[in-house]
Write a structure and sequence with these properties.
Shape of chain A: globular
Largest interface: A-B, 71 and 71 residues
Number of strands of chain A: 12
Oligomer: homodimer
Strand order of the largest sheet of chain A: 8-10-7-11-9-12
């Protein structure tokens, strides 16, 4: 069982009771003012599976755990509210590192306007961090699911893809000879991803019919969306926005890398063509310019079209179940 | 990364979208109708620390993880709403056992009227299960914290104490020669605790001024409550309700065992003396008869009074921080 000293130190990093938080950390549960619709997601990261302490500093592990949970709220177009952190800590982990994990989380929470309102700290055989986020909306109709895409919609994506995957290659020493500034930017994208919260809300308001965050990579996540919406999605590989430096870092076909590498946490969305222009402007104003890269049709599954106009096979895009 | 097959099997155990749940499992986040005040708690249990697979079957691990989280809602007097489960699974764990963990959770959720609305399943180096529960109230004043006890209140506790700790002794083979029915009841109390949700709400309505669930044992948890409320609490050991069979199972002073063993998940509460009778009746009607075992006074800390009227020392009752 972790030292009570550590639990108290963690508690001091959590939000005190305030306007929104009626009862803060230190009681049996946190109590907050709710809004009419609650949006909840849980994300768990484990050492040796989702990160190693070679590639991520403790603060970055905390940052990443919260960012990936918030990305699910972004994909719904929800207003982020509170985050709750569970830390399962191995005995060999120094207290200072455990505190750094929470500090990294608290820093990101502050930047995103999220209240770190509670959690749990326990001993365990290996390091596992689980983050639950509660987001809010005034009504269910303000949110966007994966299931609303319709034939005739266009497909867009925020930002540019592949930076996180290329950053992992940099961190693993697999991408040598890069400009240090480029290498630093790519590895930063991998270590400290940001959820597209403002863009998600802007796209929801602009009328996106379906949305998903790109955690597993476009080739996989677009197939999830197609399946949930019961539509066919076609994406042109030539129109995939590839992040700067990815081509130099990974060699080969950068677009193929960008749609398969994952962990970019950009938002893929569908929207009626007449709403595209307003949506793209709204996303850009929210800090995430959007690119149009595909269409929705009747049918099922995801097709990735290469430069030659023929489907590119073997890039994932599976539908599970 | 766990098999997608397992994730789909878990998903089928989660609640579908329904009246309260607007968007169920399978999207980026769950969406539910909220009420004005949200009450949230996270509880994490880890193999080798909180349970071993010798003493707990997989379904019991799931049950216990959810029950301990719900106990925090009980201690606030909140209406339980949704539960979200995070499973970090070691590679050696058979899929069927992982599913049994979730089934155990789903069974208890059904019995308690809680919606198992989402979660996450990931690979990890060791088994860690984290459960987040969202409960609800119409207004903050309907809830009870640890901090409201006042000098002059009486102290009560639901149910009887020590069964879980004695059950652990039974499971470890440390309590031989017991009647098998008694042994079974005690070990069941340890393996499958229940949160006192109905009693917690009844006590909140009856005007309890402060409440806490007994997870670490009365000697520790009453001290937490005394500290949060900035009062002195005196408990008479003679009035501690000891569960049937505990004396036979553990030998020695059963009351001392009962206040230190923990994991009973009964509720300790304070209430103005003129409200005691109604509160005790309400708790009994909710299935948990209450015993009066102490008083609240000005001052600080917890005093446990022995049969001789002198303080019993060395039973915990520390105040951390």
């Amino acid at each position: 069982v972790p030292e009570l000293e550590l639990i108290d130190a963690v508690r001091r990093l959590l939000a005190p009771a305030g306007d929104r938080v009626l009862v803060g950390s230190g009681d049996d549960a946190a109590v907050v003012h709710a809004r009419p619709v609650a949006v909840t997601s849980v994300d768990t990261v484990a050492e040796g599976v989702h990160f190693t302490r070679d590639t991520h500093a403790p603060g970055e592990i905390g940052h990443k755990a919260l960012a990936t949970a918030l990305s699910d709220l972004a994909a719904m177009g929800a207003e982020p509210g509170e985050a709750y952190a569970s830390l399962a800590l191995p005995p060999a982990m120094p207290q200072e590192e455990a505190l750094e994990v929470v500090r990294g989380m608290a820093r990101l929470a502050g930047e995103e306007g999220v209240t770190l309102a509670g959690g749990d700290v326990v001993g365990a055989e290996s390091l596992v961090i689980s983050v639950t986020v509660n987001g809010w909306a005034e009504q269910a109709g303000d949110l966007v699911t994966r299931a609303g895409a319709r034939a005739g919609d266009v497909v867009g994506v925020t930002g540019a893809l592949g930076a996180s995957g290329a950053g992992l290659a940099v961190l693993r020493g697999e991408a040598r000879g890069l400009d240090p500034a480029v290498a630093g930017r790519l590895s930063g994208a991998h270590r400290c991803p940001r959820a597209r919260l403002a863009a998600g809300r802007a796209l929801a308001r602009a009328g996106a019919s379906a949305m998903i965050d790109l955690s597993d990579g476009l080739a996989t996540d677009a197939a999830h969306l197609a399946r949930a919406s019961e539509v066919a999605i076609t994406v042109r590989m030539d129109d995939v926005p590839v992040a700067d430096g990815v081509a130099e870092a990974v060699g080969g076909d950068a677009a193929v890398f960008a749609v398969t590498a994952g962990e970019d946490y950009e938002l893929l969305f569908c929207i009626a063509p007449e709403k595209w222009e307003d949506a793209a402007r709204a996303a850009a104003e929210a800090g995430s310019p959007a690119s149009r890269l595909g269409v929705v049709d009747h049918g099922s599954g995801l097709t990735l079209l290469g430069r030659d106009g023929l489907p590119v096979e073997g890039l994932g895009g599976y539908e599970h179940g």
